[in-house]
Amino acid sequence: MREIQVDLGRIQTNYRTLKQLAQPAKVMAVVKANAYGHGMHVVAQALEEIGVDALGVADLNEAIELRSAGIKTRIMCWLLQPSDDFQLAKDLEIELGVSSFEVLTKVLEVGVHHLHVKVDTGLGRNGFVQADWERLFSALAGKSISLFSHLANTSEEADLKQQAEFEAALEVASVHGVEVTERHLAATAGTLSYPAMRYEMVRVGIGVYGLNPDEREFATFGLRPAMRVVARVANFKRVEAGQGVSYGYRYVTQRPTNLILVPFGYAEGMPRIAQGAKVLVAGKSFEISGRIAMDQFVVDVGDLEVSIGDEVVIFGDTENGEPTAEELGASYGSINYEVVTRIGGRAQRVYKK
């Protein structure tokens, strides 16, 4: 009735494409948030099969899950609390990204095998601010670390300013005798835009799944969406003009027409506030009619004859004429990242290679 179709072969191809682009830099594939909705364990296994350089997740629990699932590749996580089990992280050879002195103290006490230190170069989220760099690198004197940060993707000018801040942090580290063996600043957008920001490693998330990180001409890089979301028609009826559709009658039919019921609602991550979102029915594009409900939405398909059980494409690949995650996101003022990570509910994930 509801499927999230994930093409693992396409994820592998996307990774290889990004690896070729970024060489000789290593490419960390980010699989946090259930691999952006694609299924963390299955995606991690598919990437490990092709020799992924490293995997990135947000928190320690995600990293532990991957180890428990048998993943042996390098794993890094970077959203940490002082109460986290850093001894377990060390035992499982999980690499830690540190952004606060409270966490740094505990991590140094345990002696994790690979420490990544994050500096805030202008995003204003996690990371040590410039005023703390002297204290930070004094505490790390004589040690070998990785250093990383994250771009705000505001403008080229702002990105280059952040790179300059990153270089300044490297200089302070050097003065204090800290050996930086690995630098990583660029995520997908930075990797595609700035060869000079690739350093020894890049962290690529949304690009692995074939989705555009911003407004660039993305198709030129040869990355293709790996997720296709479909549902099967649950009801079909002929109605007269003046028929109100769904809660609040935001849509009223203007003529005799056919309505179909699609069993995919906001419980599956379909945004209730979407306006103008389109789906594909029998190869034709139709706008969703009226308000999206918890379990379902309605589409006015005009005089098109549709059978119960026919496929409705909610989003997929524009090269196949299908609506996209970007378009669905735009219908409610959001982005493709949110669309794919929130999708789920009762929908079944189906994998192919």
Structural class: alpha/beta
Helix proportion range:
25-40%
Cα-atom Rg, whole angstroms?
A: 23 Å
**Count of DSSP H/I helices:** 11
Biggest beta-sheet profile = 9 strands, mixed
Output the CATH class name of the largest domain: Alpha Beta
- Gross geometry: elongated
Give the ordered list of helices and strands.
EHEHHEHEHEHEHEHEHEEEEEEEEEEHHE
Spatial arrangement of strands, main beta sheet: 11-14-17-16-15-18-10-1-19
Q: Could you state the CATH homologous superfamily of the largest domain?
A: Alanine racemase
Average pLDDT across residues? Answer: 96
Task: Give the beta-strand count.
Answer: 19
Overview of the molecule:
- This protein is α/β, with parallel strands linked by helices and 353 residues long.
- The protein has 2 domains: 8-211, TIM Barrel, CATH 3.20.20; 227-352, Lyase, Ornithine Decarboxylase, Chain A, domain 1.
- It is 29% helix and 25% strand.
- It has 11 helices and 19 strands.
- It has helices at residues 8-22, 32-36, 40-49, 60-68, 86-91, 101-110, 133-139, 156-175, 188-193, 325-330, 336-342; strands at 2-7, 26-30, 54-57, 75-77, 94-98, 115-118, 144-148, 179-184, 201-204, 227-232, 235-239, 244-245, 251-252, 257-262, 278-281, 284-289, 297-302, 311-315, 348-352.
- A 9-stranded mixed sheet has the order 11-14-17-16-15-18-10-1-19. Strands 8-7-6-5-4-3-2-9 form an 8-stranded parallel sheet. A two-stranded antiparallel sheet has the order 12-13.
- Strand 4 (75-77), helix 5 and strand 5 (94-98) form a beta-alpha-beta unit.
- Helix 1 (8-22) packs across helix 3.
- The protein is elongated.
- It holds the Pfam family Ala_racemase_C.
- Its EC number is 5.1.1.1.
- Catalyzes the interconversion of L-alanine and D-alanine. May also act on other amino acids.
